[in-house]
Amino acid sequence: PRNLLDFEGWSPERLQGLLESSDTMLQVLSRPVKKVPALQGLSVCTAFFENSTRTKISFELAAKRMSADVVSFAASSSSLSKGESLRDTIETLTSYQVDAYVVRHAASGAAHLVARYSGKPVINAGDGRRAHPTQALLDAYTIRQEYGDLKGKKVAIIGDILHSRVARSNAELLPKLGAEVVLCGPATLLPLELGQMPGVTVTTNPLEAVRGAHAVMALRLQHERMEGGYLASLQDYIDTYQVNSALMAEAESGAIALHPGPINRDVEISSEIADGESSRILKQVENGQAVRMAVLYSLLVGRD
Ligand code: CP
């Protein structure tokens, strides 16, 4: 595929190729001079219509590490505020001969629109609750780094599944790589239809979710997308679903704890786990840069 909007059309072999290519990129990042000429002469536009720390910074660094020119489009200070449409905005940027777009938007499907109106490779950096494919790739990479392979691994994802593009992208990606995914949360935040995806089950029982799990991923409660009563109470959520020492003790011995960030500390994950030995949260962040280098290289140069 020419775009990474979600994982539709991405074969397990091509996805494995991206993970292997990420190994090479991680080696580049371990050198004293972390720059290669792979994308020299090409330009990448990061177009973020919604806030981000990790995804935006790591994509910009990833492109710069490979010598691409990077232009950052900030929606809040652009002519969108004067009523310019998304289509006119993208057509304007494309006239400057941008070679690829990295797009984050609150609306599901926005990255597809950018792909249609730019005709250039587009990487979805998170659209609404639909998909966040590079987050899932860096999650897969972090689990593979721990266990050598995704095959036969169980990954429990616990939290606000309803609003989570990270949960949806992991549910799409991890089974393609041979892992089993269990999605868990209170009934109000757990879309049962996700349990119909291949390799995915859903449960409201956190003990059932974590038993036998090699990785336990906590997801942020997206309070900004919750109007009205999604939770019996915040304390009730914490008591039942918080990823803490007691819950991790029920997982497979040596299981790792993950969180895509940003974290609501001591809500969906205890500080003890987030900062503890089993945590790979900062590894996820570190790996994100290498994985995004691999994705940019794959789409812009056409090789993994
Ligand atoms: N995980 C993630 O997408 O974080 P940001 O919103 O900071 O990019």
Automatic annotation (TrEMBL):
Binding site for L-aspartate: K82, R165, R220
GO cellular component: cytosol
Biological pathway: Pyrimidine metabolism; UMP biosynthesis via de novo pathway; (S)-dihydroorotate from bicarbonate: step 2/3
Aspartate/ornithine carbamoyltransferase carbamoyl-P binding domain sequence ranges: 2-145
Keyword Transmembrane helix: no
GO biological process: 'de novo' pyrimidine nucleobase biosynthetic process; 'de novo' UMP biosynthetic process; amino acid metabolic process
Record keywords, A-Z: Pyrimidine biosynthesis, Transferase
Reaction catalysed by this enzyme: carbamoyl phosphate + L-aspartate = N-carbamoyl-L-aspartate + phosphate + H(+)
Residues that, per the record, bind carbamoyl phosphate: R54, T55, R104, H132, Q135, G261, P262
Entry's transmembrane regions: none
Domain Aspartate/ornithine carbamoyltransferase Asp/Orn-binding residues, every copy: 151-298
Complexes and interactors: Heterododecamer (2C3:3R2) of six catalytic PyrB chains organized as two trimers (C3), and six regulatory PyrI chains organized as three dimers (R2).
NCBIfam families: asp_carb_tr (TIGR00670), PRK00856.1 (NF002032)
Family assignment from sequence similarity: Belongs to the aspartate/ornithine carbamoyltransferase superfamily. ATCase family.
Protein name (database record): Aspartate carbamoyltransferase
